[in-house]
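Exercise 7.
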Amino acid sequence: MTSEIVKITKLPVTVKTRLGWDDTTKNVTEVAERLQDIGIQALSIHGRTRAQLYKGSADWTLIGEIKNNPRITIPIFGNGDVDSPEKAKMMRDTYGVDGIMIGRASIGYPWIFNEIKHYFKTGELAPPPDVAMRVATCRKHLQRSLEWKGLVTGIHEMRRHYVNYFKGFDHFKEYRMKLVTSYSIDEINGILDEILIRYADNDLIKV
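Solution. The predicted structure, written as tokens, is:
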């Protein structure tokens, strides 16, 4: 199937895969070589099997082996459990990957990408976004979600993001419960107004 896709497009085709189906079928090394041979331009590898889903820790060992496989010349991107600039640097330095993919850690926290770039460039951690930035970005995200998915689905799909937008805020449960049960745009914006006022003092946020 992948071979046929490569044949019918002039665009670069990339693939993302996992280590294998389960612990007894970690065949990603063979898969990587075969994909490269049919013309894949880059490969992203998640360090878990399909059976694991998102349980347990991601194993980057095979990702590193594939990157250092002399048969492999295409860029190799690693994925799995990268949730901080320090961990991103450790994975890059340890396994030599060409790039890193970030999934769950960016849900409700889109700043992680620039924070990692900043850390790679300076060796220092960037200051976290303040409450005003978090609320403003959350509002913008909500608006884009509504424009793309419509009222009901747009509101529903935003609910998984709220907890991370305001992760670490003391006594936030009451606001989270309101955000994940409301279907009113005006009400949600009102709750965000309350959060902005309540947590304007950064001392209320856990570090």
